[in-house]
Amino acid sequence: MKGKTKKLLCTVFAAVCLLLGAAGAADMAAGGNISVIEGETPVAPAFTSYGYGDGNTATVSVFGIPVKNVSVSVLKKTDVIAGGQSFGVKLKTKGVIISGLGTVETDYGDVCPGRDAGLCEEDVILEADGEKITSAKQFTDIIKNGAGKALDIRYKRGSVEYETTLYPACDRAGEYKAGMWVRDSAAGIGTITYIIPDSNGFGGLGHGICDAETGQLLPFESGEVYDAKITGVKRGKNGEPGELRGYFEKDPCGILTGNSEAGVFGRLDKAFAGRLLQIAYKDKVKEGDVTILCTVDDCGVGEYNAKITKILSYDGKTKNFIIKVTDPELIRKTGGIVQGMSGSPILQDGKLIGAVTHVLVNDPTKGYGIFIENMLENN
């Protein structure tokens, strides 16, 4: 009797584990939300089914037993032109960013007017002496030409604006200084991820343009886009990221309209020929084989093999999964993922699922990827 009871308990336990495991699979697949593309029916995990309610909710059932209620999002069937082309970008900040604070050597000792005014690294100076600040040179000239007079400063820290008074100091050479370094622009090479047909709107990089010293997202004012020519590659190796080397064409070919943590966005002046692909929403992305589109030489866009080795987060805005380059040709050319490949489109099962963002410093064959859905939400 004891043997039969033990066997029965083991059977029940196994059934419960199987039920919980299937429910867990459903939970993982849904992430608390089911994304349904217009005109399509979602494929449920094994032993799992979806029962739709009022159009905004669904019940997840495992072996016919309801286990969870989830919300339903009906998504548009979206087609975009896959990118892979290298491009140059020049971004102009809104105001000037304090990238560092130092001291001014005066006849009375070392002082730091910026710090004395309560300013900090990463603050954005918007106005000085009643003038809207649009460049680092303009701000420097106001200080130099002010003959030491007090300057009313309006600045931004995070999302809050403040006011303070800056008292420039005269150094031993007779020049007035504020004891801080500021910057107003950034430039670099990246990769276009997608282009929207008809409008020529585009998204690229898969991450925002940030201040090199502070790592903070640069406040966006305006920007231009340029065709970029790749002339060489510094191969990546463990502990030392590689990079694409090249130059911008003389005239811009488009404008930037936004800089966000999910990438840069804008509009191109000309139409691009390319593969028109349907996007796959994030709940359809899975671990396994993918391909990457990128430009690493003068032969144009190439397609290379890779794998998604781990999904990190379905809900995060960036760094959603780990991707590993497996293509021997791309590894031979670049060592894996290098700077300038950010934004390279990732394809799975014939659909555009995301973009390469960052390389893992200790293994250049690996990097992070972002879901294309997250990029499109910011476009």
Provide tags for this entry.
5 helices, six-stranded antiparallel barrel, elongated, Thrombin, subunit H, mainly beta, Pdz3 Domain
Question: Explain this structure to me?
Answer:
The chain is mainly beta and 379 residues long. The protein has 3 domains: 2-75; 103-178, PDZ domain (Pdz3 Domain, Roll), CATH 2.30.42; 189-377, Thrombin, subunit H. 15% of the residues lie in helices and 47% in strands. The chain has helices spanning 2-30, 113-116, 136-144, 328-334, 372-377; strands spanning 33-37, 48-52, 57-62, 65-75, 79-82, 86-101, 104-106, 109-111, 124-128, 131-132, 151-157, 160-166, 169-170, 176-177, 180-195, 201-204, 220-234, 243-248, 254-260, 263-268, 276-278, 288-294, 302-311, 321-325, 345-348, 351-360, 363-371. The strands form 5 sheets. The chain has a 6-stranded antiparallel β-barrel. It has a 6-stranded antiparallel β-barrel with strand order 22-23-24-27-26-25. The protein has a 4-stranded mixed β-sheet with strand order 1-4-3-2. It is elongated.
Summarize the structure.
The chain is mainly beta and 379 residues long. 15% of the residues lie in helices and 47% in strands. It folds into three domains: 74 residues; 76 residues, PDZ domain (Pdz3 Domain); 189 residues, Thrombin, subunit H (Beta Barrel), CATH 2.40.10.
